[in-house]
Amino acid sequence: MSRKKPLAEHVAAGTFRKGRHSGPTMPVEAPPMPPDMPPTAQAFWNTVVEECRFAGVLARVDGKALRLAADSWSIYLEAQDSIHTDGINVKEPTAHGGVRVKANPAVSTRAKAWKEVQTILAKFGLTPADRTGLKAGANVGDEDKRKDIKGILKLHG
Fold it and tell me: What DSSP assignment string belongs to 37-60?
């Protein structure tokens, strides 16, 4: 079963039907950024807010979902740094003075955080599969402010 499209996506795709898609709408408005997020989460927030604003799929009430995505992105990057520093496998001392090799716990943490990021980005139509058929956003003509979604994946600090 596919997800429900936001009203702006129906309008942009030419599939909007008043009798079928009418109902409460919210103005496109960026929620305020929580002040306590780490810099990597703030950079992610700013990029995603701009993308969602451009696509016309952002409302003030989306702040909690954006916060979860931004925090998950920050966790993803922290886990990635641990993997780069310590490797995929880590050595752990045993009770008998030996050493055993086990998977770096950051690998699992990174995978979980990435899944959360993907899930939330999909809800906003920011993954390739979710953009299929989307012709234009609500703020077409604002091309000079348009950022490439690939920028989200390059954010690191």
Answer: --HHHHHHHHHHHHHHHHHT---G
> Which one, of 126, 3, 117, lies nearest residue 56 by Cα?
126
Q: Are 62 and 97 in contact (CB under 8 A)?
A: no
DSSP secondary-structure letter at 106?
A: H
Torsional sign, CA 144, 148, 152, 154: negative
pTM above 0.90, yes or no: no
Query: Which of 112, 21, 6 lies closest to 53 in space, CA to CA?
Result: 6
CA atoms 28, 53, 1, 13: torsion sign: positive
Q: Using an 8 Å Cβ cutoff, are 75 and 113 in contact?
A: yes
Condensed to tens digits (0 to 9), the pLDDT of residues 17-58 reads 766 665 556 788 899 999 999 999 999 999 999 988 888 888
